[in-house]
């Protein structure tokens, strides 16, 4: 593949994304719409994120990030409370 062909493919992808991520998104969209139409209106509505496939490593990485963010915000809040009580 020449550099020019590669640039053309990149330009095409910018206009019309393709690949497994896009396929996953479309499948999730269809499943979400079907779930919304067939769900009980008295119960909470299904969320799109519940239908989007994510591999176990991505989920674990996101959960680790959530835990780190929680402890950082807790530490910052504790420090702010400590600073405000000293003044």
Sheet with most strands = none
Question: What is the H-and-E element order?
Answer: HHH
Mean pLDDT, all residues: 87
Count of DSSP strands? 0
Number of helices: 3
The percentage helix is: over 70%
Shape: flat
Q: How many structural domains can be distinguished in the coordinates?
A: 1
| Classification by helices and strands | mainly alpha
Task: Fill in the keyword field for this structure.
0% strand, single chain, 72% helix, mainly alpha, 87 residues, flat
Question: What would you note in describing this structure?
Answer:
- Helices cover 72% and strands 0% of the residues.
- It has one domain (3-86).
- The chain starts with a helix and ends with a helix.
- The longest helix is centred in the last third of the chain and has 31 residues, at 56-86.
- The chain has 87 residues and is mainly alpha-helical.
- The chain has 3 helices and no strands.
- The radius of gyration is 22 Å and the shape is flat.
Give a short overview.
This protein is mainly alpha-helical and 87 residues long.
Topology (SSEs and partners):
Elements: H1 3-15, H2 20-38, H3 56-86
